[in-house]
Amino acid sequence: MQAWRERWSDVQWGIQLKRLFSVHSGESCDLAEILLQQTLVGSSPNSLLLSYLKHTVLSQIVPCSSVLNYIAAFDDLSRPYCVLALIHLAEVFGTKLSFSYGPDSSLQVCRSLLGVLHWLLLQLLKCLQTMREERPELIQVMDSASKAATGMLRRPTVTALLQVARADNTEAYREFEQSEVNLRGTLSQLPPGVIPDSTRESISTMLTLAEELPDVQVPLEPVLHAPHLPVCPTLNALVALEAVLNSNSDKISRPLLFLEIFRACFMGLVDSTTSSEELKWATFTFLKMRQIMVKIQQLNPGPDFSSDVEKGIDMLLQYRHLLDQADIKHRWDCLSQFLKECMQFNILTENQMNLLKQKRQIQREQLRPGDLTTSTTSSVGLIARAETTVISILKTLDADHQKNQDPLVGVLSQMLSGRSFEIITSAAASMGELKNFTMKLIRTNEFARVGPADTSKTSQTRAQLFDITFLMLCHIIQLHGMEIVTGHKEASESFIVQWAQRWLPEDGKYRSLDTTAVPQDQSKVDSLLMQFMSGDPRTNVQRWHELCINTPFAVQEVLFAWEHKALAKEKVMAVMDSIKSRMSCLSVVTCVWLCSYMNVVGTDARQKPLAMLEHLTRVKIEQATSTESRSHLMHMVMERIMNDVLPGSHPQRTCAHMYVSTDVLPIVTLHKTLTDAFQRGWLGLSSIHTLEQLLALCGSDWFCEKVVMQMLEWNKAEELSQALSLVLAIFHMDLEHLTHSMLLRLMPRLLLSTVHTHMLTDPRGFTLAKLCVLCITGTQTSKIGQKEPYVRRSRKRSKIDAELEDIDDSDIRPGKVRKLHEPQLTLNLEGFNLDDISAKEDGESSPNFDSKDPMNKALINLFLLMNAIIHDPSLTPRTTFIISFIEEAIKCGAQYARFILQFMPPTMLPQLMKTMPGVFSNAQILQICDLTMLTGRKVAAKAISSNSRFMDKTASV
């Protein structure tokens, strides 16, 4: 009152006020409320006291939020000039005041801004509802209110803080939105001429900005964008991996371009003509590709899907030489066959198919007549007919075979002729019917072993059924892994699956062997041994599965007798001949036991079992035609079983599937393979198999480190982008384990090493960050969106598996450790403190994630390490890598960004903003912080407020 009587200036008022506060520092008073009450005593505001209030807020004596709250509480439109004064204050504080510093909390500012904006909308609504009273001062109120609200909504800091307020108080934000809807409706119903057009336009502009408010998002930008490359390496290589290494999978990466997918298929067709992968590529291209396109159509429905496919194939026609090579090498019109398959699945219309066929026919007319020949033995032609064959076989296997099994034996025997079985299994895999086909074979195998053995024709037929299905199932398991027969209760209880899980080697790893094991019925073993010794193939006392169980015990007796010189070599080889003269399954189980035995004994002790194995596989018994076909499949199965146990120079050891030489170090082979692939821009068949075998040989830790380090040897951004595209696809051979290896082993080593700092310098740094984020997202996608994780089975047991097995499910969460003011540069895989990751407010629950999950553990430790690096006083390439990592995570979208960034300690973002002001935009901050948690809202509000000077300056420019 003294200031008002003596007409103090704003500066004099501020000096006296601070002097008064210094004397009465212990007392508190709501100065904003006192000034506002005195300012708004009459019908018009006291301008001098109003200037005092403005100066008090701008000099940070009074919190801005408290003034805004009192403004929002004023509800007396009968004093329009007081309302105008309050609108002016709200505009000044909301559009010009910096939120970087101040006595009030940033979260309170968010709530106050939402309240005052809601108040402005309510004043506009009340004015519109009372316009019939013809009060001209209300027009001025509406113009000022719409101008103030527009100015606030155009300020990036305000819009970002409103998003925090929205998450903080959903009820208040819902009321704000309802007022916006009411205001829009009232304005639309107002007759023309009631208010000036300029007023109506300014309110409409403000409403448009308010409507766009919830859409404050990070601009969409691909994590991996390489339009400069002639081929999309990631998609091309992923298609190759699906076709060659994962032919039974029902999954494929999301489509980027139809052209790239189609071109990758035809490149694979050309590349595979001289290899054993020819049928895999053919079935993938002509049978599985159409299913993939249907899935794409289901995920992205739209009327333009067929035209998009047509456009992609039309672009493919520009690669005429690629299509010509495919036609010449396969002796078939490959594109026409592909178009036919697309038309049958309604991917293309008949008119579209005919139009594309005509264009391709014009190109084919320029080929030499000799290049236009077609062959009935072409893989494409065989695959085209294989679909109906698979359907017919599935129906045959479903029939009731209790009375007559001869037709079934005939069908199965015919399947073994030539390449028929390989074609059928490849076609079934690409059609998604391989598991169904395998299950029916298991049922047939179980049916064939049920009846007792006798000399009748029925017994002989059952023997053939058991033998053929046993060989078929062994071959399928060898090609597609044990997972093809597991997961079904009926299958897991069957003899063949139990035997395969116990004995059949997988990925070059032999099962454990116990030479002291005792058979369930020694008399049956003795009887079988006598039959082998005498050469009398009687089976009237055995069942077929019991023969398979007891034969290894009999072979063990023969081997031990030979080793102790109780049997001559000639007699031992006669026993091997006796085994071979019977069913093929006995040769297989004998081969498995001998290989497992050789795997656990020393070099000297291997000579005799090796001689038995050589004799078993070398001698060919002349039998009927069906038995010869069965013998061919038997030798294929046995070749895979014994290949890894034979000496490297052994003549029976096949080199057809060995892409990693024993004479060259693995690192040399890997370097040469990757160099060729990086320079070429796509993966050939040889490269795929070489990389797969190196991964299985050396494990995920070694493979991940070497591949990533070679990727980082490039210098130019374009070269790094191409290498990154290929590495991402290569990692899909075993994405989950390779991602764990990168996060748990490689990244801490790079971040802590002073030698490899240059590897984190851009463009290498952000390329590495892209790879990390893409691998994490890919792993998480496979866990969320698929029935089974996208994991290749041929891999070496990693340290991660061992760590998981060592964890007891009864273990409780690690005890809390003492917090330090500064994070330490350490990496503790087990003893991390979850409170370092998510600081809780009172009443908030602990973070909801499994700390024992390998991916969660890896991310927790990586973020703790990065947090320690951020708090280091020096600014290094490690800092820019961390920023790139967070930015790339945000690009993956809200769902995956939230998964990655949930492990980010709450002190990390403020420290980053302090170290490099303005490094993140407001939209990025909103994505980084978890707004569902009070802690996240506080961190976000504070970061946005400290960011206000940079964001507002950018917006004004």
TrEMBL record:
This is Mediator of RNA polymerase II transcription subunit 24. It is found in: Nucleus. The keyword Hydrolase does not apply. One of its GO terms (cellular component) is mediator complex. The lineage of its organism: Eukaryota, Metazoa, Spiralia, Lophotrochozoa, Mollusca. PANTHER family: MEDIATOR OF RNA POLYMERASE II TRANSCRIPTION SUBUNIT 24. Pfam families: Med24_N (PF11277). Keywords: Activator, Nucleus, Transcription, Transcription regulation. One of its GO terms (biological process) is positive regulation of transcription initiation by RNA polymerase II. InterPro entries: Mediator_Med24. GO terms for molecular function: transcription coregulator activity. Belongs to the Mediator complex subunit 24 family.
